Amino acid sequence: MIIVIILSFGCLLFPKSKIIAICFFLLMWTLWGWNTWNGDFDAYQLRYETFGYEFGYNGICVIFNYLNFSFQAYLISISAIVLFVAYKFGCKYTNYIALYSLGYFFIFILEFVFIRNYLAHTISLLAFSQLVNKNNLKFVVYILAACTIHISS
After folding, report:
1. Are 90 and 128 in contact (CB under 8 A)?
2. How many other β-carbons are positioned within 10 Å of the β-carbon of residue 11?
3. Are 83 and 105 in contact (CB under 8 A)?
4. Rounded CA gap, 88 and 122, in Å?
5. How far apart are CA 111 and CA 105, in angstroms?
6. What predicted TM-score, i.e. pTM, was given to this entire model?
7. Over the stretch 35-75, which tens digit does the pLDDT of each residue have?
8. How far apart are CA 79 and CA 109, in angstroms?
9. φ, ψ of residue 93 in degrees (nearest 5)
10. Residue 9 clears pLDDT 80, i.e. is over it
């Protein structure tokens, strides 16, 4: 908790600091990737081993299973990818990356338990980038891809 408070003050005092932003994202990666239990942990671990009805998410699980990743190694990898995309998105669309990381932390604490939703959310960030660049076809492809990860997204 003290780390979050220190980083939060750092973000407010130095809103453009990439170092503070990276520290915040590394904290989020630690909290998510090395998480050993939460309310949905058992359900996601079972889905990782047995698969479900969302073929995009199943495809990701099949790849990581094929590579012999444990569920924990899967979480570490997926969280690194998702948080890296979120960080790069912030770098691209704001000059206040530390402040962005603080705001993103509040989204993170609500979402990191819901892996499929978080993956779909991250893909929607990529879709947004395409919309800004007026690339409507890629935007639609990203949104459809997000729907294969989490159908209700």
Report:
1. no
2. 24
3. no
4. 11
5. 10
6. 0.93
7. 998 888 999 999 998 888 889 999 999 999 999 999 999 99
8. 13
9. -110, 5
10. yes
Categorise residue 68: left if φ over 0, alpha if ψ from -120 to 50, beta otherwise.
left
118 burial type by CB count under 10 A (0-12 exposed, 13-18 middle, 19+ buried): buried
Residues 107, 117 contacting (CB under 8 angstroms)? no
What is the percentage of the chain residues whose pLDDT exceeds 70?
99
Residue 100 contacts residue 19 (beta carbons within 8 Å) = no
Residue 113 has which token pair?
A: 């338990």
Q: What does DSSP assign to residue 42?
A: H
Residues 6+ apart with CB under 8 A from 73: 64
Structure confidence at residue 101 as a pLDDT band (50, 70, 90):
very high
